[in-house]
C-alpha cells in the first residue's frame, strides 16, 4: 500500500512539472501586460483581452482552418499510402523486398535539414510555392509510418492469409477486408502521430509560403511576436493556448491508441 502511495505522489509531482509550462501559459493569457512585467503567477484581474487581440492581429480562424486542412490531408494520405506500402512488404513477394525495406528505413537517418534544399527546388520547379500541395504532398508517406504498419502486419495470423488465398481472395480485397479492419488500433496511433507532427510543423511551411491564405497556425504565432517593440506576451500566450488545444484533445482521447498501437508491432521483427 505504501509503495502505491509513494508511486502516485511521484506521478503527481512529475505531471505537475510536465504541465507547469502549459498552466503558466494559460495563466499569462488571462493577464494584463502589467502582471507579466511584475512576474505574477496568477492574473490580478483575469481578462479575455489577449484572446480578443490575438484574433484581430492575425487571421486566426484562417490559420486554424489551414492547419486543420493540412493536418487532416496528411493524416489520411499517410494512413492510405503507408498501409499500402507496408502491405506490399509483408504480403506481396518480390525480389529485393528486404533490401528495399532496409533502404527505406535508412532514409530515417537523413536529417530533415539536409533535404530542405532539394525539396524546395522540386517544389519550385513544380510551381507549388504558396500552395497547399507544397505543405501536404512531401509528407504523405513517411518511413516511420511504413515501418510501424509493416511490424503490425507481421503479427497477423499467417493462416488467415493462406485461407483467403485458397478462397481466391485478391491482394487488394484482402487489404480492404482483412488487413485494414484488423489494424484499427495501429492506424489510430499513426493518425495521431501524423496529425500532431503536421500541426506543429513550422520550418517547412515558413520556407514554402509567404501568403497568409495558405499559412498554418504555427506561422501565425510567430507573427504575434514583435521583433522591434516589446512583445505583448498575454496575446502570444492566448494564441499559443488556442493552437495547443486541438493537439491536447487528440492526445487525451487517443492515448489508448498510441499505447496499444506501439505495443502491437513489438512481437515480430
Give descriptors for this structure.
269 residues, mainly alpha, MetI-like fold, globular, cell membrane, MetI-like, transmembrane, transmembrane helix, membrane
Low-confidence stretches: none
Q: What profile does the largest beta sheet have?
A: none
Indicate how many domains the architecture comprises. Answer: 2
Mean pLDDT: 88
One letter per element, helices H and strands E, the order comes to: HHHHHHHHHHHHHH
| CATH topology descriptor of the largest domain | MetI-like fold
Q: How are the SSEs ordered, and which strands pair?
A:
Layout: H1 2-29, H2 33-37, H3 49-57, H4 60-91, H5 97-106, H6 116-126, H7 132-136, H8 143-153, H9 158-166, H10 171-179, H11 184-199, H12 203-208, H13 217-224, H14 233-264
Helix pairs in contact: 1-14, 3-14, 4-8, 4-11, 4-13, 11-14, 13-14
Amino acid at each position: 500500500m505504501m509503495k502505491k502511495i509513494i508511486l502516485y505522489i511521484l506521478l503527481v509531482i512529475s505531471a505537475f512539472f510536465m504541465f507547469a509550462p502549459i498552466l503558466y501559459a494559460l495563466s499569462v493569457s488571462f493577464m494584463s501586460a502589467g502582471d507579466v512585467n511584475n512576474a505574477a503567477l496568477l492574473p490580478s484581474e483575469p481578462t479575455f483581452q489577449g484572446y480578443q487581440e490575438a484574433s484581430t492581429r492575425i487571421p486566426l480562424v484562417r490559420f486554424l482552418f489551414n492547419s486543420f486542412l493540412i493536418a487532416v490531408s496528411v493524416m489520411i494520405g499517410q494512413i492510405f499510402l503507408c498501409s499500402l506500402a507496408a502491405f506490399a512488404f509483408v504480403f506481396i513477394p518480390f525480389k529485393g523486398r528486404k533490401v528495399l525495406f532496409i533502404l527505406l528505413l535508412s532514409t530515417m537517418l537523413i536529417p530533415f535539414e539536409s533535404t530542405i534544399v532539394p525539396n524546395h527546388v522540386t517544389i519550385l520547379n513544380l510551381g507549388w510555392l504558396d500552395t497547399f500541395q507544397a505543405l501536404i504532398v512531401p509528407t504523405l508517406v513517411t518511413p516511420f509510418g511504413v515501418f510501424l504498419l509493416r511490424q503490425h502486419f507481421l503479427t497477423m495470423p499467417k493462416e488467415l492469409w493462406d485461407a483467403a488465398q485458397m478462397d481466391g481472395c485478391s491482394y487488394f480485397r484482402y487489404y480492404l477486408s482483412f488487413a485494414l479492419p484488423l489494424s484499427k488500433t495501429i492506424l489510430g496511433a499513426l493518425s495521431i502521430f501524423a496529425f500532431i507532427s503536421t500541426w506543429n510543423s513550422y520550418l517547412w511551411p515558413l520556407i514554402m509560403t509567404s501568403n497568409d491564405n495558405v499559412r498554418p497556425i504555427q506561422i501565425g504565432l510567430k507573427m504575434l511576436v514583435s521583433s522591434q517593440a516589446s512583445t505583448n506576451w498575454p496575446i502570444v500566450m492566448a494564441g499559443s493556448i488556442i493552437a495547443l488545444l486541438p493537439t491536447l484533445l487528440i492526445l487525451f482521447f487517443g492515448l489508448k491508441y498510441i499505447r496499444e498501437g506501439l505495443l502491437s508491432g513489438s512481437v515480430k521483427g
